[in-house]
Amino acid sequence: MKIVNVIFTNLFYSFLSFIMTFVILLALFLIMNIQVSLILSIIMVLLSFSLFCFCIYSFVCINRNFHFLFLKGISGLVSLGCLTVVFTIVTVFFFSINFMISTELGKNLTIEEKFELYMLPFQEDQTTPTDYNAMKENKLIQSYRNVTIYYTQQEKELLPVIEGVLDKADSLTTRLFGTVNDNNIDLILHASSEDLYERTSLIETMGYFDDPNDIVGVAISDLDEIVSDQMPGTFYFQSTIMHEYTHYRLQAFIKEQDLFVYRIPLWFHEGVAEFVGMYDVAHRYYPFQETSFENLVTHDDWEKKRLEDYDVYLQSYYAIDYLVNHYGEKMIKTIIEETAKVNDFNEGFTNATGISVKDLETNYLKEARQSIEEK
């Protein structure tokens, strides 16, 4: 009975220790600089693991004379063992989040943004994780530049097309952002938009870029049209690759500015990607249903409006096209750099352009409608 009481007592105190340790470290890491947080979490992981190894050694030696601080004997050793397990789990958790933030998301996050990232593993996830390894199975592989292309034998004729598109995308994005330190990325070809949807659950889309995994996926609308360079298949295919590659390059550039990737609102991300994807395309203005850019900041905002039949891609394209026409292509880079200086997009946008985002909404719509009336 005494052993049972010791076990339940240790379980209770272990749970209590877990909660207290988690809350204390959470509060600490929220107010600390992310680089300092990362270093501290590494030290804590090493310390907790060392204590755990010490406990294992003491158990093996059956050290009945064990004495550590106020913990004594076998029961004290068991208690310390439970505490080290708890502390190791908590510190490894915080280390993984801090490492992700420092390497993938930029250093200048607000307390609220860091809190959301720390809480992310505890949120209920309604989506099924995408199995990219399954997509790559039985595919042939071709490397070009920093891109590894996954394709089937029937799709081999697309390789010269893809390589030409990647050259163009590299040239255009280098003009917009300057030289960017490239990662190695994977480009997965999907036999159709239906195949892409089945594999990813993405609705009504021809492509995607998965930032954490550095993966681009593109659907083949019509293989024969693309290979023979016929419209509209060749246009959709090439434009989609350029669009998704621009997402990769833009996010890489944003990270190099030590900015949280989504400090830049999604309408700007998508507008720049559409601008590159539609580059040198004669794009006639026509009426469309728009919404305020305040409603297109996050991914959830974007998906909600996109599926409500707002033409959010076209709207964002027109806005970026307006900026380029009035300020030049370098303005895209300047807006991001000014945002990095103040860690706020709206303020950085105004500092770069001299107008507000609200002014942009009014100005580009006015120009778009004027162009429609003239035609």
State the gist of this model.
With 375 residues, the chain is α/β, with parallel strands linked by helices. It has 15 helices and seven strands.
Describe it for me?
The protein has 375 residues and is of the alpha/beta class. It folds into three domains: 2-122, no CATH class; 132-245, Glutaredoxin; 257-375, Neutral Protease, domain 2, CATH 1.10.390. Helices cover 63% and strands 8% of the residues. It is built from 15 helices and seven strands. The strands form two sheets. A five-stranded mixed beta sheet has the order 3-4-5-7-6. It is globular. The chain starts with a helix and ends with a helix.
Oligomer: single chain
**How many domains, as an integer?**
3
Average pLDDT level? 82
Number of distinct beta strands:
7
Helix and strand content put the structural class at alpha/beta
Taking pLDDT < 50 over at least 5 consecutive residues as the criterion, the unreliable ranges are: none
Q: Could you state the order of secondary-structure elements as H and E?
A: HHEEHHHEEHEHEEHHHHHHHH
What is the global morphology? Answer: globular
What fraction of residues sit in β-strands? 5-15%
For the largest sheet, list the strands in their spatial order.
Answer: 3-4-5-7-6
Sketch the major β-sheet: 5 strands, mixed
Number of helices: 15
What's the alpha carbon Rg, rounded to whole Å?
Answer: 26 Å
In helices, the fraction of residues equals 55-70%
Q: What is the straight-line distance between the termini?
A: 90 Å
